[in-house]
Amino acid sequence: MEMNQIGQNRLTRCYYTLAINFINEKPTIMIPVKNLLLILASICFIIVIGGAVYEHIVIVPAWSAAPPASLSMYQGKYGINPAPFWMMIHPITLLLLIGSLITNWKNNRKKNILFVLVSYFAVLVITSIYFVPELLSITQTPYQDTVDTSLVHRASMWEMLSLVRLAFLVVLAIILLNALTKLNAKVIVESVAEVPLNYENDAKGG
Length: 206
What we know:
- It is a single chain.
- The protein is an all-alpha fold and 206 residues long.
- It is 75% helix and 0% strand.
């Protein structure tokens, strides 16, 4: 019973000290650079996924349905051109991931960020080697009011592989978002560990 009372006294003192520190803490709007970079990197990464999801729901099924008859959206003076979006968002995301890795190198977020950065870079390399050239090769085929079975097969293969790529990016996003939660848990543990305990008073029941 006495040991249980001592444990309860220690736990009560921990919670009391944490509450006092929270109340007395001066309000601030400053966000640590390492947190800000990781948040921005996560936002950009999700934007990448959002753009890919939109294309796979709206754009890809339309142009891959029956090429070259289904390629009219890419043809002519006012054909759609999603390249500027991807050429902007990918470098920004890469730079933010690199910045996040550098600023979080000494904490337990490092492994998550490093894995996502290396994997994302590998995805971009594969995209530049296969996905972009194959997409341009198909969509720049001159429009005709006919269906080319070989183009249909290539388009279907491209779409399937692109969906695999998208699923992998979703997994990477989950890993990256998980990194945002890691340091918070560490801070709480450190805060509790710093709470002073008076063993003499605990032993006396005080």
